[in-house]
Amino acid sequence: MLNFKNKILILSTFxxxxxxxxxxxNSSSEASIQEKNAEKAAPTPASFLALGEFSVEYLEDxxxxxxxxxxxxxxxxxxxxxxxxxxxxxxxVETPVRSVAAYGYFDISxxxxxxxxxxxxxxxxxxxxxxxxxxxxxxxESGKIAFLGSYNSIDFEVLKKTGPEMxxxxxxxxxxxxxxxxxxxxxxxxxxxxxxxxKMKFVNFLAPFFGKETEASEYFGQVAGVLQEIAEKAAQxxxxxxxxxxxxxxxxxxxxxxxxxxxxxxxxxMGDYVFDDVFGASCIEISMERFLTGGxxxxxxxxxxxxxxxxxxxxxxxKTNPSMSAIQPLHAGKVFAPLPHYSQSxxxxxxxLLEIAAIVHPDLYPNYERKYFTELPEKDA
Length: 381
Description:
Blueprint: H1 4-23, H2 29-37, E1 48-51, E2 54-58, E3 64-67, E4 73-78, E5 92-95, E6 100-102, H3 105-113, H4 117-120, E7 121-124, H5 134-142, E8 146-147, H6 156-162, E9 166-169, H7 175-180, E10 185-187, H8 196-210, H9 213-234, E11 242-248, E12 253-255, H10 261-268, E13 272-273, E14 284-285, H11 288-295, E15 300-302, H12 314-320, H13 329-332, E16 334-338, H14 349-360, E17 373-375
Parallel strand pairs: 4-5, 6-7, 6-9, 7-8, 9-10, 11-13, 11-15, 15-16
Antiparallel strand pairs: 1-2, 2-3, 3-4, 11-12, 12-14, 16-17
Signal peptide: 1-31
Protein name: Iron complex transport system substrate-binding protein
InterPro entries: ABC_Transporter_SBP (IPR050902), ABC_transptr_periplasmic_BD (IPR002491)
């Protein structure tokens, strides 16, 4: 396991690399002068980007090859140009994409980052009363965005009528159905949880579908800047609170693994993540014994539950499962629950990262006002 000094070194190296990715690097003074004098510079993305399990490769003449979360390659073809050979019809997407159906909150939040959500989103898998993103609420009220049914019971007739040029989902089982409907299906999840680097760079994966590389670079740079701030403050930390992220349900115990972005952030913000040795998917299942062992001396618990799903107080959380009361945060520590809008706030990733860091080290962020998490009281009022 890395010691805290090494974690800071890793974070600093990561941020430096991230900033190079955003701004580019040119050693030629003449080129630098030309760049400063240019009134408007077109985006010049790297020819190949590895984004965790995803990848983007810029080819000649505007063509782009991408690899999705299911390790399938797609060809992005500029409108009006013929497709290249070697790709089945179901893996060819004309760009910029003009209409999309999407399952995931994070995917839809990234459409907001790219500035295309109002123009392209035509179908979602949550009803209107569950949405807080204004563009989605307004789109559903106007009839532009359709409710396609819940993720496990999609109404494919409704989906077909919406006419999306592409669908984004985590559900591999719908791939053959969508291919039969002539709708390219992009898998936006992976078997392994997104690390912090991949979480930040996911915007660069979706950008070429809509020709929004400039917007993606700006967002990435903004998030990288916040990480720089977190690193600078973390260097001042004198204590390293133990943090856990997960919950006990009726039949399963789920946590965020150490390789997930939240685990990495806690560690790099100079917290001690108790599931640092767990590797795998987001919301990975572990044994009750492992969860309780991690909670013996943890000081902070992030629960998956929101106040709307039972996380109204420590006492209420303990009642969801008697075993929960055995972990230290419920009686001698702090418990934080995500607010209902947290899951739809991927476009505010920089603010979320900063807030988690402020929770881990409140002494370094005096007077910080939380927007995405609430601290649970001992008992309900």
